[in-house]
Amino acid sequence: MTATTTETDAATLDRVLQAAADAAPVLAETSAAERAGALRGIADALDRAAEELVALAEEESHLPNARLTGEVGRTTGQLRMFAQGLEGPDQLLDVIIDTADPDANPVPRPDLRRMQLPIGPVLVFAASNFPFAFSVAGGDTASALAAGCPVVVKAHPGHPRTSERTAEVVSQAVAEAGLPEGAFALIQGQEAGVTALKDERLRAGSFTGSEAGGRFLYGVAAERETPIPFYAEMGSLNPVFVTPGAVEARGSQLADGYLGSFTLGVGQFCTKPGLLFLPRGSGLVDELVDNVAAAQAGPMLNERIHQGHSTVLDELAERPGIRVLHRGAVDAEGGTAAPTLLATDVASLLEDRDAMLTECFGPTSIVVEYDDTDQALEAARAFAGSLTATVHAQEDEAEQVQPLLHELRERAGRVLWNGWPTGVAVSWAQHHGGPYPATTAPSHTSVGMTAIRRFQRPVVFQDVPDALLPEPLRDANPGGLLRRVNGELTTEDVTR
Predict the structure, then answer these.
(1) Catalytic residue flag (residue 270)
(2) Among the four 44, 48, 399, 444, which has the fewest Cβ within 10 Å?
């Protein structure tokens, strides 16, 4: 069934944006416990509706039931993790207090008290390839609500009915939790999304999707009368480098892992390894070709993504430095594609880097053969920003690969050792971001607990009387928060 989208009309959009603006000061004053309760309520409601939601998403996205069921679990897990963070020792507020010091040099220091406050109403552009975890109730929505920001979600046209039903579940849970009207809403349609992003009532935006879409929306956000932060997660090549020692020690294991990673979800993961660097003459290429040739075709998310993959693949296959090792069958009418494996070498890649270092979103990857460590380093320097970069090596090759790791950490938000980049753990330490074009804000993540920082802004109160301070900054510390006071972490009260 072809997904159809009903564009949110101008009058409805205005009501949604005004409700979000009206809700912002009320939501900002809710306690961490209240927001934690709301997040858990949303998670519980989604779990109860999981079977219905998965059935809708399966029909609209062509993703398998097991994958979607697991994704609902990831989505509710994210919500509960943010709830747990709000109940933690610092309530995700990052409170820092420097008490007055009249004897400070070179000048006396005033009393300074800093904490994170919600940035205001947020617009979230949902992703196509994750109908739940990066969509209506995904990580952006969870982190923005945790921060105390009203959320307006622009649904992805690839799964409009799934989005609408998910939004109904979330809206009911938000109301039952006692959050203000306007704390959450869904809009549909490209024009409505752009119009909303231009509206001065919104204070931040986030996006997961193509580089072209992210660049356009980032420009809209920057060109407003009052520019706002816009956090776009866009293209990523996620290079993987394999050393001679790793090939010798576990070549077959690497061949299996590579196939599984670049074809996971029919290659429609933002962390798909787009290029695999192998030592020349390793003998692993033939095994890779056999693995790829035996792999089955799978359905792609929608016609637009299917066509985009085919177009980029055709362009890559025609480049003079590219060899087609195996061309997977494509069924445009059925919307399926089988894995394709291309090959080149470092010299050809560097000569034609603009074409070869183009993301091919789908089940296609390129094997690149290198001659020595210096050539591998030269290849690493050719990359722009990526979400991930991976090295497969043996422990006794540590000294040899250290320069490579150093180059890759300059270009990626997550550096992996002997792993595969697909699969992003939702945790406190996770960073799902990277230098441009992976994202527009490399210091921020869209996955993990620190994702909340995108939707907060630090405010310092100088010499403000105790009774007028927000409760987390008051001397007595009535909430028992863990705060950094004069450089030391403590839960004690403050003596001015």
Answers:
(1) yes
(2) 399
